[in-house]
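Support reply, case 0932

Customer input (verbatim):
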Amino acid sequence: MNGDTLLPDYSDEYADIIHLPHRVSTRHPSMSLSDRAAQFLPFSALSGFEDAIDETARLTEERPVLDDSEKERISSLLTRASLDPSLILSVAYFLPDPLKPGGSFALAIGSVRRLDRLSRTLTLKSAATPIPIDDIICVLPHSHNRSGEEMSRSST
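Our regenerated output:
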């Protein structure tokens, strides 16, 4: 032990090499400090933690509950539009979130390609994906939807 510190004194064991110059390879170029540091960057003790934080922070909307009169109004407008291919609709619907409670809202505009009451879906000519009728929150004839305020008013 060295008298000044609590560390062991190895000077006698390594006396033959301690003062030799640092060996530099002639075969391999020396690595820069930033490259050496980069070797340790991929290590993440908590892999997936950042994704979990982002998912928790992502907000979803609550599914609105429609009263019977609004459901009846939507049903009659869909029926009318399915019989009149020239009628273009603005359809606001709820998209359930696959990972957490709630979801988001979407808007589709187009004429009715198919109204399937058995599978309870609506398919517009402008979209290939059927919209579940139970997820529809508002339907308006597109010509009446000048600024979108009628749609937001009728969906509240």
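We compared this against your earlier run and they match. Two observations from our side: The two ends are 81 Å apart (CA to CA). The beta strands are 88-96, 103-116, 121-124, 131-132, 136-141. Please reopen the case if you see a mismatch on your end.
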